[in-house]
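A protein record in our archive is deliberately plain, so that people and models can read it alike. The tokens are whole numbers drawn from a learned vocabulary of local backbone shapes. For reference, a complete record is included directly beneath this paragraph.
>
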Amino acid sequence: MENGQIVRAFRKTGSYIGEITEVRQDICIVRVLAVLKHPMQGNLHHPREVEVPFFHERKAHAFREQIQVPSNMVRPYEDEIPKYEDSLKEAVQKLYEELASKPEDPFSNRSLEALKVLIREYELMYGLEWPNIAKS
């Protein structure tokens, strides 16, 4: 891995396309350019559990945000880089559909509540709309 290289970076439960801006011993600093997979909602220490002390709303990293990623979680990326807003919209839609397909699952329901809060924030931040997602 080297500075300027376009990569796929996995951070916590999300996946991003970005540009390496610095390489350290076991860490790459990656500037986010697009979202491949939106982070899952909830508590990282208690995955897929609803009864936790704090159920997190996990936002995707912002456009051009610099993130630290362990070097072993960075892979070369050679496809076309989508526009950040388009990639975020697609990643949110995919996560929403995955969660909505399990209406009997308490974790999916709680995650949908958290995701709907984030969708309202993304709409304000980026001027995006999700006409197929009920926000109430």
User: Anything to note?
Assistant: The mean pLDDT is 90.
